[in-house]
Amino acid sequence: MSSPYEIAFEIGEIYDRRTQIHEPFGGSRQSGISPSAKAPAVFIFTGDSGEQFGYSDHFDDFGVFHYTGEGQVGHMQLRGGNKAVLEHSSNGASLHLFKALGKKAGKSLGQQYMGEFVCAGHVWKDGPDRKGSIRRIIQFHLLPIDRVNEATVEEATETPLPTSISEARALALKAMSSQEGAGASTTVRTIYQRSAQVKHYVLLRAAGRCESCGKSAPFLRKDGTPYLEPHHINRLSDGGLDHPRYVGAVCPTCHREIHYGAGGAEKNDQLRAYVDKLESSIWV
C-alpha cells in the first residue's frame, strides 16, 4: 500500500486523469467514483453530465457539497463506488474530489482538484435515469475536511463523553455510520460531534502517552487531561472523521515530524503498525 504522503494534489490545480491520477494510484478510469487500488483513497469526479437527468452536484448555503452517486440505469445501489464513499471513514480512506472541465476539440481539459472531503451523510431522492425512467438516486453530503478543524471539534460536544474506554469506543464506532436522511444543516453539526467522539476515544486509549514515541504528554490541558494530538494515519489532513484504528494520539513533536520531517512517512508507517496491533489486541 502506498503512503498517503504520496497523495499531494493542490486545490485548484488541473490534473490529467489518466497519467496523474490513475497511473500512480490505480482505480477505474471511467467511473465517477474510483477507489484507489494502491493507496487508502477514493477519488470522485463531478461535472455537468447529471444536468440532462434533472440533477446536478453543487455546494449549498451551508458549505456542504451535494454529490450524486453512480449508476445510470435503474435504482442506484449502495455497492461498488457508492459503498466506497459511504464507508470511506470506516475503511480509513481519504476522499478526494475532482471536477471535470469538459472537452475542447475532442480533447479533455483535465480534472480540477477541489480538495479532500468527508462523507457526513446521505439522502435518497427520485429522479430519471439515462432512459428517462424514474428511479431512486443517492445523494451524498460531503464536507470539506478543513471545515472540521481541531478548534471546532473541541467545542462540538453538547453532552458529556463517557470516561469508560469501552463505552467511548462503542460511541466512536457508532459515529462511523453515515447519517441517512439528515438535512445539510444537521450534517454540519453532527459531523463535528461524531469527530469529537472518535478523538475522545483515541485520547483515552493513549492514556497520556504518545503512541509514536511512547513518552508522556508534554503538558496538561487546562482541564487537567494530558495534551496529545489526534493524527489521521492514512491522510495528509487531520480533523474530520476516521475509524479509531486509523487515528493515533501523538505528542506535538512527533506530529510535526510525521508531517514535515524527512523520515515522516516511515514514522507514520510505524505508528500505523502500532495502532493496528493495539486495536487488534485490545478489541478482539
Layout: helices, strands, pairs:
Elements: E1 14-15, H1 17-25, E2 33-35, E3 41-46, E4 58-59, E5 65-68, H2 80-86, E6 94-100, E7 103-104, E8 107-108, E9 111-128, E10 134-144, H3 150-154, H4 165-174, E11 179-180, H5 184-206, E12 229-232, E13 247-250, H6 252-260, H7 264-282
Helix pairs in contact: 4-5, 6-7
Q: Can you offer a commentary on this structure?
A:
With 284 residues, the protein is α+β, with helices and mostly antiparallel strands. The chain has 2 domains: 4-145, Roll (PUA domain-like), CATH 2.30.280.10; 148-282, no CATH class. The protein is 29% helix and 24% strand. The protein has helices at 17-25, 80-86, 150-154, 165-174, 184-206, 252-260, 264-282, and strands spanning 14-15, 33-35, 41-46, 58-59, 65-68, 94-100, 103-104, 107-108, 111-128, 134-144, 179-180, 229-232, 247-250. Strands 1, 2, 3, 4, 5, 6, 9, 10 and 11 form a 9-stranded mixed beta sheet that branches. Strands 7-8 form a two-stranded antiparallel sheet. Helix 4 runs antiparallel to helix 5 and helix 6 packs across helix 7. The radius of gyration is 20 Å and the shape is globular. The two termini are 24 Å apart. The relative contact order is 0.13. The model has no long low-confidence stretch (mean pLDDT 87).
Provide the CATH superfamily of the largest domain. SRA-YDG
Q: Please count the helical segments.
A: 7
Write down the overall mean pLDDT: 87
Which overall shape is indicated by the principal axes computed on the Cα atoms?
A: globular
CATH A-level architecture of the largest domain: Roll
Low-confidence stretches: none
CATH fold label of the largest domain: PUA domain-like
User: Structural class given helices, strands, pairing?
Assistant: alpha+beta
Question: Which percent range describes the beta-strand content?
Answer: 15-25%
Number of strands: 13
Give the radius of gyration: 20 Å
Domain unit count: 2
SSE series: EHEEEEHEEEEEHHEHEEHH
Largest sheet: 9 strands, mixed
Distance between the termini: 24 Å
> In the CATH hierarchy, what is the class of the largest domain?
Mainly Beta
